[in-house]
Amino acid sequence: MLANTKEQLMLKGLDKLTRQFDEASRAFKSLDGEIATVRVVPGDEASVQAAIREMEAAIDQKAAPYLGNPLVDPVVKQLKVKYREHIIKRSQGQA
Question: Which residue in 2, 4, 5, 75 is a FRET match for 44, CA 20 to 30 A apart?
């Protein structure tokens, strides 16, 4: 009986991991390619902040169905940092 319970727990864990991988695959496909088009006016801090908010909202919207997935959440966080940095560089004429 104990072995059976252990096997059931292992199968449940495997099912959960498989589901997380499937969700991650779908999330990464939705985040691949163009996420949003934002407008930045060099030197205009308000437009920079608005562009960052728009980009983060677009990322959040695409990733929303997978919120809480431990494989997806760190990637979403990294994407936001990457695009924030890119928008700031673009506003300074560096991109």
Answer: 75
Whole-number mean pLDDT of the chain? 90
Q: Give the count of alpha carbons within 13 A of 21, CB side only.
A: 6
Where along the chain do its domains lie?
2-91
Crossing angle between the packed helical segments 2-31 and 73-91, to the nearest 10 degrees: 20
Distance CA 90, CA 95 (A): 5
Q: Answer yes or no: is pLDDT of 61 > 60.
A: yes
Residue 62's CB is within 10 A of a number of other CB atoms, namely 18
DSSP collapsed to 3 states, the chain? CHHHHHHHHHHHHHHHHHHHHHHHHHHHHHHCCCCCCCCCCCCCHHHHHHHHHHHHHHHHHHHHHHCCCCCCHHHHHHHHHHHHHHHHHHHCCCC
